[in-house]
Amino acid sequence: MTTRRDDSDDESRSHPAVQRFSDILLLLKASDFAAYDLSQPIDRRVLVLRKWIDVHPAKEFRCWVRNGRVFAISQRDTTHYYPFLVAEQDALARILVAFIATAVVPKFPVATFCIDMYLSRADNEPFIIDINPSTSTTDALLFTHAELDALPENAVTVRVVESEAAAAQSAPVFAAHRIPHDVVELSQGLTVAEFAEQWQKQVAEASVGLDG
């Protein structure tokens, strides 16, 4: 299983595959996205577990589809410059567009969506990572949502990080969310001293619970 991308735990960022049920619970607790999802009035929720595969972040892409046509593609790892992507972006885009047009659009019941793709290192074989609604809740990465709304459907706009300087200016995806949800809740309206006291109290209570 992969971790939530807004999880801030250092260990999980270094080792994003989880192996125990306790790891899953910890990651769900640390994610404010998960907390938001669980707070919504939904009758049925599904926890999706997927087999872990090691992917190279340079080969991950987010593609936007409108009315069954890919019209925008962005590099997912916006904080790193990969020179080969600049040179090969058009060829890689053609692979992504062809796969989505033939393998996804005819089978997917929605004509407008956002799809995350991975191209294998060896031969650029396409793999689906995830499919999400094409809304403001889905990160626009190297675009803005206004730009995506204005782009025509009859052409594909591709964006990759084109220099080290551009990479340095990009904040990590979901950087604003990378604080555990329970820490944010605990700190609301407290001074630093009050927060530290409450935090130590919760840590002590948790330790007692584990010992018991």
Q: What this model shows, in words?
A:
- The structure is a single chain.
- With 212 residues, the chain is α+β, with helices and mostly antiparallel strands.
- The chain has two domains: 10-51 and 176-211, no CATH class; 57-168, 2-Layer Sandwich (D-amino Acid Aminotransferase, Chain A, domain 1), CATH 3.30.470.
- The protein has eight helices and five strands.
- It has helices at residues 10-14, 21-30, 32-39, 83-104, 145-150, 164-168, 181-187, 192-211; strands spanning 60-66, 69-75, 113-119, 126-132, 157-159.
- It has a five-stranded mixed sheet, covered by helices on one side.
- The longest helix is centred in the middle third of the chain and has 22 residues, at 83-104.
- Mean pLDDT is 80; it is low at 1-14.
- One of its GO terms (cellular component) is cytoplasm.
Main attributes of the structure:
212 residues, CDC123, disordered N terminus, D-amino Acid Aminotransferase, Chain A, domain 1, 2 domains, alpha+beta
